[in-house]
Write a structure and sequence with these properties.
single chain; Rossmann fold; 10 helices; binds adenosine-5'-triphosphate; binds magnesium ion; nucleotide-binding; ATP hydrolysis activity; ABC-type transporter activity; ABC_transporter-like_ATP-bd; P-loop_NTPase
């Protein structure tokens, strides 16, 4: 009897410590190295390019950029995580790696569910109309044609593209950068993502749209996904994320509550 009691207490104690959160992304000591070809001297000029073609000499000049240096963290379902750091610190690289678009040199990234990268460079087609892009984008995210039909109007309304006239039927290349970013965000946000990676999409929209997208990020979080948000706008990180990871020169500086990390980050920037 005494034995069962101990087992029970031990089990109770174990459930107490046990982490019930569901991990969505595990980044384990990740290193990412870009290999830049033709970075040697004089490679840029037309004559040097021509002489290289004629001599068929292979350029040995491959420069390496070690963009991410041993970063580790785990994110959980329902979390919105801010990623901050100076220009060139490795934030976009980190997101692209989580999305599976860049190989890791060392370390590994495990994801639970499909990560979707929503960036300033997300692939919409400039020569197609906004309207075509909405449909293609939704299909590409795995929606059925019927689902696209039902979501279509919501997406266009959310984007606000048609507030100033019938722009949705014009090619994307006629949009301002803010309008294009809004449409991109609206398409991506129409779906519940397991892991949504947002790279500064909010920075390009106007204030009204920023508010709306922050609300949508909060909704996406409730729908049990994980959201990563890269931004130089400290307020939109504060308003959307309760956890923030700060990266400098490819290394993790701090990972904690947004309030704590922001305090240190703002000190660093002064
Ligand atoms: N395609 C690439 N080829 C080579 N080097 C790259 C490439 N993309 C980024 N880098 C380098 O990797 C490092 C990290 O860049 P990254 O774009 O991840 O920074 P970031 O934190 O997103 O910066 P920003 O705030 O300016 O967007 C930088 O040194 C950059 O020069
Ligand atoms: Mg970037």
């Amino acid at each position: 009897m005494a034995d069962t009691a101990t087992t029970e207490t031990r089990e109770a104690a174990m459930t107490d410590v046990q982490d019930t959160r569901v991990p969505t992304v595990v980044v384990d000591d990740v290193h990412i190295v870009y290999k830049v070809h033709g970075a040697g001297s004089g490679k840029g000029s037309a004559t040097s390019a021509l002489s290289r073609i004629i001599s068929k000499k292979r350029s040995p000049a491959i420069r390496e950029v070690h963009a991410v240096r041993g970063i580790s963290f785990t994110s959980y379902r329902g979390e919105a995580v801010g990623l901050i750091g100076s220009n060139g610190s490795g934030k976009s690289t980190m997101l692209a790696a989580i999305a599976g678009l860049l190989p890791t040199e060392r370390g590994a990234i495990y994801t639970n569910g499909q990560p979707s990268l929503l960036g300033v460079n997300a692939a919409l087609m400039n020569d197609l109309t906004g309207d075509r892009n909405v449909i293609l984008g939704c299909l590409a995210m795995g929606m059925s044609p019927a689902e696209v039909k039902t979501r279509y109007q919501d997406i266009v309304d959310f984007s606000g593209i048609n507030e100033k006239g019938d722009f949705i039927s014009l090619p994307m290349r006629t949009y301002s950068s803010g309008m294009a970013a809004r449409l991109r965000f609206s398409i991506a946000a129409a779906k519940t993502h397991d892991v949504l990676l947002i790279d500064e999409a909010l920075a390009t929209g106007d204030q009204k749209f920023q508010r709306r997208s922050e609300d949508r990020i909060r909704e996406l979080r409730k729908e049990a996904g994980t959201v990563f948000l890269v931004s130089h706008n400290n307020n939109s990180i504060r308003d959307t994320c309760e956890r923030t990871i700060w990266i400098e020169k490819g290394e993790l500086v701090m990972d904690g509550s947004t309030d704590d990390v922001m305090k240190e980050y703002e000190k660093f920037n002064h």
